[in-house]
Amino acid sequence: MASKDYYSILGVTKSASDADIKKAYRKLALQYHPDRNKGNKASEEKFKEVTKAYEVLSDSQKRQTYDQFGEAAFEQGNPYSGGQGGPFGGFGQQGNPFTYTYSSNGGNFDFGGFSDPFDIFEQFFGGGNPFGRTQRRSTYSLTISFMEAVNGATKKVNMGGKSQTIKIPAGVDNGSRIRFGDADVVMEVGTHPRFKRQGYDIVTDEEISFSRAALGDELEVETVSGPVKIKIPQGTQPETLIRLRGKGVKSVSSSGRGDHYVRIKIIIPKNLTSRQKELLRELEGEKKKSSWF
Predict the structure, then answer these.
(1) Into how many domains does the chain fold?
(2) Interval 29-81: pLDDT, tens
(3) What is the DSSP letter of 90?
(4) Which of 146, 173, 189 is where one domain is finished?
């Protein structure tokens, strides 16, 4: 069988840079990933080929050996594939560096890499295979309060029997993952009696009287970053939302912040004095004359 050209497999030239090789592998691996092409044997074989090619060409020592001896340098039984004297002594088992087997949904696929090819996906995608493969990283759960999630905190976590100190950035939410060494810590965020979170935005309800809504007023509201005074316009209607720009939760990935929305709830009195009833009747009479509502 004719030897395979790793450069051709990745679609790059022999003078390709490391960045070119990485870019080419990423594109092809996404295209032929077995979880994306379930049951397609041709795609499985293609994925095996591009993974093997990348594993060799992305390593300067392996690439140099490949350029000198070709694919044969990595085949079982070749003096350069393993053993004490070869440049790849110590890789793989029984002299064959390509020993990795991946099991998915009950099927076994030999992808032919020195190492788990999905480790490469973790490098590209920040720890996750985009096609649903279960992560091999240890996962721990950490419960924090609503305000600890908003403002950030430093917490002690028991990981593998050892106490570790982990810094939680401001802005994490329920289900957020923090990478800590070889493990992931998943946040479980408690609720708040007043603040309701929607992404990086905060929503609160503020109750005001009918007269304050009709006449307008000034109101002090509590935000996650402290109290803020707002104006209630004349004639404010029930369920009106007043936006406080930049008074929400800090973004984890940028310097921006969400907004705070104040939802106005108008209280209708249940028990009125005789005088209050008389005044409301007068108002109703004025309404019929001038249509001020």
Answers:
(1) 3
(2) 888 887 777 778 888 888 888 888 888 898 888 888 888 878 776 664 454 44
(3) T
(4) 189
